[in-house]
Amino acid sequence: MGLSRIRDPLLPVVIALAAGIALAHFVWFGRGESIAAAMAMACLAILARRGTRSLGWGTLLLTLLWAGIVVAVLHRPGRLPRIQTGPEETLILDGCVVEPPVFYDGRDRFTVELAPHARAQVSLHPRDGERPPDLHYGQRVEFEARVRSIHDFRNPGDFAFSSWSAQRDVYWNALMHAGAPVRVLPGRCGSPFRRLAFALREAALNRIDKLYAHDAYSTAMMEGILLGDSTKIQKVWTDDFRRTGTFHTLVVSGLHVSVLAAFLLFLLRVCFLPEMPALAVTSALTWIYAVMTGWHPPAIRAAGALTLYVLARFLYRRGRVLNLLSAIAIACLVLDPSQLFDASFQLTFLSVAAIGALAEPVLKSNVTPYALAVRDVANAAKDPRLEPRQSAFRLELRLIGETVSEWTRIPLRAVLIAISVVLRLLLYAWQSVIISTVVQVGVALPMAVYFHRISLSGLSANIIVVPLLALAVPVGFAAVFTGWGAIAWAARLLLLGAQHVAQWHVRFEPPWRVPDPPLWLSIASAAALLALALSLRRSRAWRWPALAAVLAMFTLVLIYPFQADAGHGVLELSAIDVGQGDSLLVAFPDGRLMLVDAGGFPSYGGKAAKSKLDTGEDVISPYLWTRGIRRLDVIAATHGHADHIGGLAAIIDNFHPKEFWTGAAPRDPALDAVLAHARKAGVRVMARQAGEHSRIGPVEVDVLSPARDYMPADQPTNDDSLVLRLRFGRRTLLLEGDAETPSEERMLSDGRVAHADVLKVAHHGSRTSSTDPFLDAVQPTFAIISDGIDNLFHHPHPQTLERLASHRARVFRTDQLGLVRVVTDGQRIEVQDWAEDMQFRQWAGPRGEN
Fold first, then answer.
1. For residues 651 and 614, is the Cβ–Cβ distance under 8 A?
2. For residues 577 and 155, is the Cβ–Cβ distance under 8 A?
3. How far apart are CA 282 and CA 280, in angstroms?
4. Those residues with Cβ within 8 angstroms of residue 282's Cβ, 6 or more apart along the chain or in another chain
5. With 80 as the cut, is the pLDDT of residue 228 above it?
6. What is the SS3 assignment for 780?
7. At what angle do helices 458-482 and 485-506 cross, to 10 degrees?
8. Are 578 and 700 members of one domain?
9. Percent of the chain predicted with pLDDT > 90
10. CA end-to-end span of the chain
11. What is the average pLDDT across 198-226?
12. Cβ atoms of 347 and 451 closer than 8 Å
């Protein structure tokens, strides 16, 4: 049997191709042998055409699998471009502006191509009252900046931002000094087509700014919905959409492109343009729109899908959902196989595949026939050409219409029209419920893996929010095109309506987050969905068992009744890589969990650094979820500095701790806000002081600082730090926070300091901590320093490293090694680091034995 005899012949092709790409991702294949093997399999497939049907199919699929391996190998990235520079060195750079500037939060940001396929994202902070440079796509510029390579947080479960940036050819961040000039060089660069598209984009952004001049919310949201520019969107504005599973409507996606294409096609047909020319013009305009939105992959895929649809119509071929989807997937994977591992790609294709494989058969048998039957229901002459159930349904509707007409004296035709409209609306609503449910179940697994959310309220929220924001797209563009305030007001009304719907649904959405499902559950969920799709098309007997299996897997993913990967008879300390900050996970032998600090962004010159990244939500929580952690027993904030408490609010929301420990707590707005957030969430807030002793399972917990008579200053200081000592069996761990020399001297004078096997070095290795007398008393075997790569504070200080070396302490730094994990059973200690893929092991017996 050939592929041409299958209903969707391209579906097995894309599955085999994707399998080959995935195999090449996990197993190393050389270029020469991969091509040779693919050619050999192709020859074997040609020879097998004369053999049995199963042999022909097998060799063909193996050939396609090897083709996927070859595609992945040929696209394997070569040596990454490098710029040799120090963290404080200023370079003179020149290049082509490939993404025009976006000004927000007092910062101008644009992208420059320094060399072919080697770009830097440039940030400029103009001085007060100074206008940012007026730059446009295609200009050649020269400027001075400090250049840093893009780095990831190295923890299991963290988003590989450097790889994502590399797919856009962006490898560096360049920071210009305040007031530094940008010199425009003579000549033009870039693509004329993109120059036109970006000129249209800039004009559209300027028009939106004018239309919503005094409404920051509408300006930011409309720029995001229409043009994919999310730089001005504040995270708090999108929280309700995220929690209800409707956030996808706020970013440029295939839905936006499809709606806009339908609107353009309608306008062209109204202007009496024939169907095929109208489709061709619409297809060309969608490609321009894809460039205007920043060349986002979802927009590119949707434009490609429309182009393939137009081509199929031109060749008089009937398009099928799964076949068209497979064709787009093949094109995307051949051009860029790395998209297979992109969340956007997976969610897009799984959503459409769920509609085509699951929803379409259900709708075709239960909804579509009746939707067709209610059209022109008054015309009885159409009944013989329809299915018997459709004809019977139409007859029943006419009888109902005659009864209502007799009772109300309303003309029969008017009654039948009203019945038809009402039924079509009800059928549309029921169709939306089915599609929304199928999509939510179909993408539940990747939503849990990538976003750790499965929204139940999204089943109904999407039914209302999607049409509202889909309608806001053409209305918003109409406002941009005409500049009419009334149309802009209508678009804003649709946006606010969607916002209120999301806010209303949030009240019924449980505040849970979903950890990473186990591998076996992921495989079982995918198998159950595949079985359901096959049973809907081929075997009625297996439909209910397959549906029960799908619902069972969905329930397991949702409630996650599995034990967390923590504790189990050992004491664990994990220094999570949060950059220039602190966050420590302590897992006690009885399974209880404590998080000490939650990172954040330090302040420079008294000003807190601004970032859309929330270390609690975006860095620490994903790591905890990869370990199956849903709840924390204790959160401890050592002190009120931003690089320690910046992510605590998100941790409180995501993991619902029972207790919140603090040290000295001066009246500070940032720390007060965190404490208020904890109390509002029902968390017990406890101020801990030196001398307090408690037990968590078999572990003794002692508080060494702050002293009972310590008086905090008006603002948070490092000496406010809560210092904890954990003792389990023969092993001791000392967690110093940011305690500096005065705190260390006070602890020494009080006689509270003793030997510790593991020292979490204070204040990121600053020279104002870890003094010789303190290290003489502690004599650590292992020292952990939590700091950021190339940080501006130059932590850890060379003097501190020398002092630790003189005391024979083995140093582990998160800036060099990523996450550092210490595990002890009370006798032996195991230290692991992320830099060696968690393979490094350092074993220590009693002091002096290695």
1. no
2. yes
3. 5
4. 261, 264, 265, 268, 306, 310
5. yes
6. coil
7. 170
8. yes
9. 50
10. 66
11. 92
12. no
Residue 342 resides in a domain: no
For 226-287, the three-class secondary structure string (H helix, E strand, C coil) is HHCCCCCCCHHHHHHHHHCCCHHHHCCCHHHHHHHHHHHHHHHHHCCCCHHHHHHHHHHHHH
Question: Tokens 């990121």 map to which residue?
Answer: 764
In a domain, 332, yes or no: no
The residue to which tokens 């209502």 are assigned: 404
Largest CA distance in the chain: 102
**C-alpha to C-alpha distance for 810 and 830, rounded to whole angstroms:** 13
* Residues 256, 371 share a domain: no
Q: Are 572 and 586 in contact (CB under 8 A)?
A: yes
Number of H helices, E strands in the chain: 30, 24
Of the candidates 176, 157, 159, which has an alpha carbon nearest to the alpha carbon of residue 167?
Answer: 159
Closest CA to 585 of 744, 696, 735: 735
* Average pLDDT of the residues in 531-551: 87
Place of tokens 């995501």: 654
If one counts the domains in the chain, the total is 6
Q: What is the pLDDT of residue 847?
A: 39
Kindly state whether residues 645 and 501 are assigned to the same domain.
Answer: no
* 166-198 pLDDT, tens digit each: 888 999 999 998 778 899 999 999 989 888 888
Domain presence at residue 325: no
The pLDDT score that the predictor gives to residue 377 is: 87
Is 94 in the same domain as 134? yes
**Cα-flanking dihedrals φ and ψ of residue 249, to 5°?**
-75, -15
Residues spanned by the domain of 509: 192-319+455-513
Asked whether residue 707 falls in the same domain as residue 582, the answer is yes
Q: Are 605 and 623 in contact (CB under 8 A)?
A: no
φ and ψ at residue 582, rounded to 5 degrees: -130, 140
- Alpha-carbon distance 250 to 494, whole Å? 12
Distance of CA 187 to the CA centre of its chain: 39
Q: Indicate if 231 and 164 belong to the same structural domain.
A: no
The answer to whether residues 403 and 444 belong to one domain is yes
- The type of residue at 657 is P
20-51 per-position pLDDT tens digit: 999 998 899 999 989 998 898 888 888 777 66
Whether residue 629 contacts residue 566, with contact meaning beta carbons closer than 8 Å, is answered with: yes
Nearest to 241 by CA among 618, 501, 511: 501
441 and 472 housed in the same domain: no
Is position 421 within any domain?
yes
Using an 8 Å Cβ cutoff, are 247 and 296 in contact?
Answer: no
Among 189, 206, 196, 180, which residue's Cα sits nearest to residue 108?
Answer: 180
699 vs 702: CA distance, rounded Å: 10
